[in-house]
TrEMBL record:
The protein, known as: Glutamine-dependent NAD(+) synthetase
Gene that specifies this protein: Nadsyn1
Key word DNA damage present: no
PROSITE patterns from the UniProt entry: CN_HYDROLASE
Organismal lineage: Eukaryota, Metazoa, Chordata, Craniata, Vertebrata
Domain CN hydrolase residue range list: 5-275
């Protein structure tokens, strides 16, 4: 009697519409699973076409090419004698579904459409797919001719069913279905399903991993069973980084853990597990057994195949392990670094350019690039041929092997300190010292000539010369002069990104990195089309508080001592004139609030869904020890005025790594108007009425 089943799940770095690359990675994962004795292989959600195809799902080409890849998989010798579970879009009766296609030995066993679609935050699945609403119902699906010719099947089951092998029963879930209150695994488990599978497209958010792990383990803690979780990994073409974390759980305990961040395109977890552990676990839960006796049965697709061997008594099985979580600082060090690597190699550019100001934000961005260089060297040292090939192509040297992160950083990373008459020598020194310690190619330049030229054109045309407020000018004049400096830095950043390597006699161009944090973006504390305007921004979804903690982490783990003085200096834009040679302008004074307060406002606005009045009501209790209600009212009003005045800046925000659930990203995560009535007259009157009552 077969007891020990060997199963595999994986995390694949798929890329939207890269059908050739996606096919290669799927086949490689199946080869690895088979070589380790697995009889079942699970892959990520929509792995054939890539999860992030967006409106390309509307195109018939996407469906056609997905079936062409499926044809190749069915014909591949790698897929023989192993149940393969792959993800792709399928059109059934002119309705598009997000599906799992499960096949064995050139025969499709079942096409299982997704029941609960992800449609919040960054997800828009209802835009492209329809949920399957016929519970425990199966229909005939007529296969395309190219598939019929391979399988010899005209129709296959399509719908909500489970697989019954010779030795066990398997049921599929897909991503969001694990997160819903009434997950399919509940009723499937009651109906005798012993192995649950979940193919996901789940992206990274700081401090999210434990929630995902808890959900997977709790899925089998109350009901018993084996749970396989597969996930996309890497940047598949947009702001999200899918963070792997493939895992296998048995009866509420993790037995196999995949990496959350790595440069490996293919990662396969294989585990051998005892079905009798599931059966004995369930046997003593009387409440579960009573519920099971009443459950409506699922249609079963019979499969003449076993996941176990007849004589397996001596086969060792996997034991529970303790999940190892990354700290938020480690997540910032690794997640955006892996995202940058994917973006760099897939954009076929030669490196990055960063305007390095000597402040916390640009320094944190530089540290993330340095961390990327560490990851590349480590991957090459561990024998990752894909990373080595990509590194050689990026530096245009087929004999090169990256071994030292500082040396590799010199080749792919250019930093540039753009001084003006308002810059201090301190920030210049900090930027230079950090560049030396991480190894970047560093440029010092002065923008005063360009600033004077632009302002001179205005003066020549109008006959008026604007002045800073410290010299008697108005606030409008002062702001305009600050913005000219900021925007000239953006123009120069792109010029140097395009031509720096050319000037050094090297091929290729550089991607410009932005370094505005999530709090500054939320408030709009940035100049539109300044250095925040870049190709990509690795810290645009990270709070100032987390960035400070990350800087401390880099001091301790990368021995970047230059960061100590950067940490201790007050954040400043350095756009206003110096006073006695010292910086007089600070970010928090300009904003009229602290970064800590700004993070709280951001979380209440987005995560707690609080408008001005609700935010006031929450904060009078949260801050009752430090602020009067009238002071709270003043702070809330100031935030909402500033936020609404500057919301238009979010429409041009540089694509940023998504790491925080209160991100103001206007692209698809945080959809709001960008022309507000900034008086908030009704809302503020409600606050005033409550203040007077208090």
């Amino acid at each position: 009697m077969g007891r020990a089943v060997t199963v595999a799940t994986c995390a694949l770095n798929q890329w939207a519409l890269d059908f050739e690359g996606n096919l290669e990675r799927i086949v490689r994962s199946i080869d690895i699973a088979r070589s380790k004795g697995a009889r079942y292989r699970l892959g990520p959600e929509l792995e054939i076409c890539g999860y992030g195809c967006s409106d390309h799902y509307y195109e018939s080409d996407t469906l056609l090419h997905s079936f062409q890849v499926l044809e190749k998989l069915l014909e591949s010798p790698a897929t023989q004698d192993i149940i393969c579970d792959v993800g792709m879009p399928v059109l059934h009766k002119n309705v598009r579904y997000n599906c799992r296609v499960i096949f064995l030995n050139k025969k499709i066993l079942l096409i299982r459409p997704k029941i609960a679609l992800a449609n919040s935050g960054n997800y828009r699945e209802l835009r492209w797919f329809t949920p399957w609403s016929k519970a425990r119902h199966v229909e005939e699906y007529f296969l395309p001719r190219i598939i019929q010719e391979v399988t010899g099947q005209e129709t296959v089951p399509f719908g909500d069913a489970v697989l019954a092998t010779k030795d066990t029963c398997l049921g599929a879930e897909m991503c969001e279905e694990l997160w819903t209150p009434n997950s399919p695994h509940i009723d499937m488990g009651l109906d005798g399903v012993e192995i649950f599978t979940n193919s996901s497209g789940s992206h990274h958010v700081l401090r999210k991993a434990h929630t995902r792990v808890d959900l997977v383990n709790s899925a089998t803690a109350k009901n018993g069973g084996i749970y396989l979780f597969a996930n996309q990994k890497g940047c598949d073409g947009d702001r999200l980084y899918y963070d792997g974390c493939a895992m296998i759980s048995v009866n509420g305990e993790t037995v196999a853990q995949g990496s959350q961040f790595s440069l490996d395109d293919v990662e396969v977890l294989v585990a051998t597990l005892d079905l009798e552990d599931v059966r004995s676990y369930r046997a003593e839960i009387s409440s579960r057994n009573l519920a099971a006796s009443k459950v409506n049965p699922y249609p079963r697709v019979k499969v003449n195949f076993a996941l176990s061997c007849p004589d397996d008594v001596a086969v060792p099985t996997c034991m529970p392990i303790q999940w190892r979580y990354h700290s938020p600082e480690e997540e910032i060090s690794l997640g955006p670094a892996c995202w940058l690597w994917d973006y760099l190699r897939r954009s076929k550019q030669a490196g990055f350019l960063l305007p390095l100001s000597g402040g916390i934000d640009s320094s944190a961005t530089a540290c993330i690039v340095y961390s990327m260089c560490h990851q590349v060297c480590l991957a090459v040292k561990n024998g990752n041929a894909d990373v080595l090939a990509d590194a050689r192509r990026i530096v245009h040297d087929e004999t090169y092997t990256p071994e030292d992160p500082r040396e590799f950083c010199k080749r792919v990373f250019t930093t540039c300190y753009m001084a003006s008459e308002n810059s201090s020598q301190d920030t210049c020194n900090r930027a230079k010292l950090l560049a030396e310690q991480i190894g970047s190619y560093h440029i010092n330049l002065n923008i005063d000539v360009a600033v004077k030229a632009v302002v001179g054109i205005f003066s020549m045309v109008t006959g008026r010369t604007p002045r800073f407020s410290v010299y008697g000018g108005s606030s409008r004049e002062s702001l305009a002069l600050q913005n000219v400096q900021a925007r000239i830095r953006m123009v120069l950043a792109y010029l140097f990104a395009q031509l720096t390597l050319w000037a050094r006699g090297m091929p290729g161009g550089l991607l410009v990195l932005g370094s505005a944090n999530v709090d500054e973006s939320l408030l709009g504390y940035l100049t539109k089309y300044d250095c925040s305007s870049a190709d990509i921004n690795p810290i645009g979804g990270i709070s100032k508080t987390d960035l400070k903690n990350f800087i401390q982490y880099c001091i301790e783990n990368f021995q970047l001592t230059a960061l100590r003085s950067i940490m201790s200096a007050p954040p400043t834009a350095e756009l206003e004139p110096l006073v006695d040679g010292q910086v007089a302008q600070t970010d928090e004074a300009d904003m009229g609030m602290t970064y800590a307060e700004l993070s709280i406002y951001g979380k209440l606005r987005k995560i707690a869904k609080a408008g001005p009045y609700s935010m006031f009501c929450k904060l009078i209790n949260m801050w009752k020890e430090i602020c009067t209600p009238r002071e709270v009212a003043s702070k809330v009003k100031h935030f909402f005025r500033m936020y609404s005045v500057n919301r238009h800046k979010m429409t041009t925000l540089t694509p940023s790594y998504h790491a925080e659930n209160y991100s103001p990203d206007d692209n698809r995560f945080d959809l709001r108007p960008f022309l507000y009535n900034t008086t908030w007259s009704w809302q503020f009157r409600c606050i005033d009425k409550q203040v007077n009552a208090l």
